[in-house]
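Researcher: Let's do a round of design. I'm pasting the structure tokens now; please hold your answer until I've finished.
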């Protein structure tokens, strides 16, 4: 088969590779769409080496065409349409078990990064546990976007616990930033999009931003404060990976607010007292998303807004009551949750019991995040 490698210095090469064969717990995907993530650009633009031997691409989406001998029907079936949570881990540490295999204690393998072949090829071999079902009404292109960029936006919004009555500022309106704007607006928040490109500012407005800021024309911190009665945004997500944006993201956060760095590049310089301590500001870093991103697909596939609102109402009330994730919720409430969940997402592959809904963090997290 043909695969694409990044040689550095903006050069790519089509190379012949042997068709992959699955290990006992692997599957082979026929790739239908493979996205270019912002992270790929680092490999694309790095110094020329000419020695890269790995297939690039970590936003895979395709169809299962071959199964390893120990892959069960509940893991995957031939012809399944799937996205890929593009990390493999030991499978048994607490991070792998909770769907965060990118944090694996044994060291994760990131497909398409030089540790494992990626998706810019006809076929790709992945561990069956990395598969995320793709609903029929989602295109392969959409699935590829969800497999990293859009999934990352969703993961960051879950992480910061955005509420529908809050103001969210999003620095950078590339694929991750635009997805953040779109999800944030759909979750009911007032979104302020910060972006240097006029085309991307236009797209941000189309995707639901309430206001846009051009940081080359105005100071973004001052502009955010003017749009928020001098207080700043409740939550800020920085996706640009630029030093000035990172600093402005923290300074544009209001007292008791949260600033979240999503992009991997860019340093930040802060005056800790006035920027953080004396304003009770929380700063955190966030890396992609939990494998339960399957809920992203289901959320994205709904054409009606009513489903969103039903789930949002439920999730925000959970957050307001500040329930810890693993606490036991009442059986009656759990039944309501399950009813709503099944009503909204009838194709959930595994039956979920009341006990599971109360006790398993990924389920609760997925529900809360929508
Ligand atoms: Zn990525
Ligand atoms: Zn692990």
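Researcher: That's everything. Go ahead.
Model: Designed sequence:
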């Amino acid at each position: 088969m043909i695969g694409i490698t990044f040689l550095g210095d903006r050069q790519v090469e089509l190379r012949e590779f042997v068709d992959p064969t699955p290990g006992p717990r692997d599957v082979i995907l026929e790739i239908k769409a493979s996205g270019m993530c912002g992270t790929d650009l680092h490999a694309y633009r790095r110094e020329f080496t000419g020695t890269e031997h790995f297939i690039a691409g970590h936003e895979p989406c395709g169809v299962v065409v071959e199964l390893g001998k120990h892959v069960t029907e509940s893991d995957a079936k031939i012809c399944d349409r799937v996205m890929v949570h593009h990390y493999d881990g030991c499978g048994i540490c607490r991070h792998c078990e909770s769907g965060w295999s990118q944090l694996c204690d044994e060291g994760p393998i990131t497909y398409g990064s030089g540790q494992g072949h990626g998706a810019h090829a006809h076929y790709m071999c992945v561990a069956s546990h990395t598969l995320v079902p793709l609903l029929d009404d989602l295109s392969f292109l959409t699935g590829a976007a969800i497999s990293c960029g859009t999934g990352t936006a969703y993961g960051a919004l879950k992480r910061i616990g955005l509420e529908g009555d809050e103001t969210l500022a999003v620095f950078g309106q590339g694929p991750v930033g635009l997805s953040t704007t779109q999800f944030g607006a759909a979750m009911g928040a007032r979104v302020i999009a910060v972006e240097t490109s006029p085309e991307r500012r236009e797209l941000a407005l189309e995707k639901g931003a309430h206001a846009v800021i051009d940081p080359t024309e105005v100071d973004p911190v001052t502009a955010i404060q003017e749009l928020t009665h001098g207080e700043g945004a409740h939550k800020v997500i920085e996706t640009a990976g630029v030093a000035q944006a990172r600093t402005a993201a923290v300074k544009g956060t209001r007292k008791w607010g949260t600033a979240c760095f999503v992009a991997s590049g860019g340093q930040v310089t802060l005056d800790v007292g006035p920027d953080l301590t004396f304003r009770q500001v929380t700063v955190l870093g966030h890396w992609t998303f939990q494998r339960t991103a399957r809920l992203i697909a289901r959320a994205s596939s709904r054409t009606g807004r009513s489903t969103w609102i039903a789930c949002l109402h439920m999730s925000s009330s959970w957050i307001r009551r500040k329930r810890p994730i693993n606490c036991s919720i009442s059986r009656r409430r759990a039944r309501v949750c399950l009813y709503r969940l099944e009503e909204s997402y009838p194709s959930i592959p595994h039956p979920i019991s009341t006990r599971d809904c109360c006790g398993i963090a990924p389920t609760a997290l997925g529900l809360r995040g929508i």
